[in-house]
Amino acid sequence: MKSHFPVVNVLGVSFINTTNAKFIHQLTQDIDERKNTFVVTANPEIVMYADSHPDYAATIKDADYVTPDGIGIIKGTQMLNQPLQERITGYDTFLSLLKWGNDQHKSAYFLGAKPKVILDLKKVLTKTYPNLVIAGIHDGYFDNEAPIINDIKESQPDLVFVALGFPKQENLIAKYRHVNNGLWIGIGGSFDVLSGHVIRAPKFWQDHHLEWLYRGLTDPKRAKRLLSLPKYLLKVKKSK
Ligand code: UDP
Questions:
Q1: Which residue(s) pair with 40 in the sheet?
Q2: Ligand 1, residues 116, 170, 192, 224: which to mutate, most atoms within 8 A of Cβ?
Q3: Per the UniProt record, which EC number(s) apply here (predicted)?
Q4: Measured from the CB, is residue 167 less than 6 Å from ligand 1?
Q5: Tell me: the pLDDT tens digits for 130-154?
Q6: Number of neighbouring beta carbons within 10 Å of residue 209
């Protein structure tokens, strides 16, 4: 763990207490210095999963920065009377890094999501971020990761975006981050959103930090996940 920011502990996970702007500024410095960096963007589900899976908890402890991805984490820290300054989501961080990477002509590797999704992702990237160098792009449904890791090793990208969902993305990063001294970040379903395959919640829901609820209510696959939130809040309360 790099020690640039104070942290607040929620059920054993140490979240950085800072703003989006300061966090991005720090990351861009780390990237410019070719520091090997691992970012976890953690929501309540990840915290609950780590709470019951010691190996995964250890993997997250090895990350350099764990960001509060969602209002549930902010609520948890308020309950602990140690409120974090703001949400730092995987998707917002992804967009900020793409913009900066484009401005600075950096290179990025994209790993994850379905083959159809990454075809469209590539179109969006070349159109919106023409100066960003695409070091490589690969879908997230592979049997053998060796050729992909070799690609990353050969191309030495500044940014490695891994969108395999948790815990896969963090496990892969922890195992292979040593092959490239860039920034490695797990960003869940972000490729689906940027490619237009998953539509973000309408503005009202976003503004009220209810995007998670919107998605849970409109996507049957996610409905079950909503139940983990009350469990999480209860557990945080008990831990106080
Ligand atoms: N995914 C993948 N490989 C897998 C499983 C999932 O590339 O073996 C992708 C999936 O297509 C989706 C992303 O991982 O684009 C994240 O999925 P989800 O939205 O369920 O994760 P979350 O954002 O909740 O972590």
A1: 66, 186
A2: 192
A3: 2.4.1.187
A4: no
A5: 999 999 999 999 999 999 999 999 9
A6: 14
Q: Are 12 and 51 in contact (CB under 8 A)?
A: yes
Token digits for 10? 């929620």
- Ligand 1 centroid distance, CA of 143 (Å): 16
For the four alpha carbons of 163, 179, 1 and 135, in that order, the dihedral sign comes to negative
Angle (nearest 5°) at CA 30 between 120 and 82: 95
189 CB near ligand 1 (under 6 Å): yes
Query: Could you give all domains of the chain from N- to C-terminal order, each with its CATH number?
Result: 7-200 (3.40.50)
Instruction: Please state whether the predicted TM-score (pTM) of the whole model is above 0.85.
Output: yes
| Ligand 1: centre distance to CA 167 (Å) | 10
* 114 CB near ligand 1 (under 6 Å): yes
Secondary structure of residue 71 in the 3-state scheme: helix
Say how many Å lie between the CA of residue 33 and the centre of ligand 1. 30
Instruction: Give the Cα separation of 87 and 68 in Å (integer).
Output: 5
Instruction: Return the ligand 1 atom nearest residue 114 CA.
Output: 11
* Tens-place pLDDT, residues 33-74: 999 999 999 999 999 999 999 999 999 999 999 999 999 999
pLDDT at residue 1, as a whole number: 60
